[in-house]
Write a structure and sequence with these properties.
The chain is of the alpha/beta class and 208 residues long. 43% of the residues lie in helices and 14% in strands. It has 7 helices and 6 strands, in the order βαβαβαβααβαβα. It has helices at 39-47, 64-81, 95-98, 117-126, 138-162, 175-185, 196-207, and strands at 27-32, 55-60, 87-92, 104-107, 167-170, 189-192. A 6-stranded parallel β-sheet has the order 3-2-1-4-5-6, with helices on both faces. Helix 1 runs parallel beside helix 2 (64-81), helix 4 runs antiparallel to helix 5 and helix 5 (138-162) packs parallel to helix 6 (175-185). It is globular and about 55 Å long. The model has no long low-confidence stretch (mean pLDDT 90).
Length: 208
Amino acid sequence: MASGESHLDHSKADKKLGLPGQMKRPLNVTMIGAGSGFTNAVLKDVVLIPGSLGGELRLIDVDAERLELSRGLMAKILEITGEADKWTIRASTDRRELLPGTDYIVNSIEVSGVECVRWDNDIPLKYGVSQNIGDTIGPGGLMKALRTVPVYIDILKDAEVMCANAWVLNYTNPMSIMCLAAARTSRMKSVGLCHSVQGTSQMLAGYA
């Protein structure tokens, strides 16, 4: 990534119009960990898909206050984009209430909250292990995996019962461990997403 750039610089709207034609049915998209900062960006992209027939945006978070903030933000985004007539927003702190009928699950959870993340960085640093970001690999990534993977597996178990045909899009680190856990424990169709992929590609292209 060039100096002065940020993740926002490579996540701007694309000028391409996407695939031609119209979707055949409305979509139900469920965001688990909807209090995440990724929610407005990911779901904004969803509602702006050309040819979309709308559907439901289902927001789930164990933090009721953050959940309500995300619900209000998504309502505002729908209003500004002129898509409010196509989409219904539902929000709940209980994922079992909203999983049935889901087409796509976006997993963006932070188990134990953001206040826990600093220890993944600070404790290894105290013992001489300097990590770029301690949520992916190294001791910080391992600690995050130990508290995050069990919760993710529980989510997948619920999904197998309530929306077995849904695709699970994981946006939670440590990405490789999360995807491996899903592949080894669940029948759900799952894929890992990370905005650092396109950012790193641009960075390497710049070096080249």
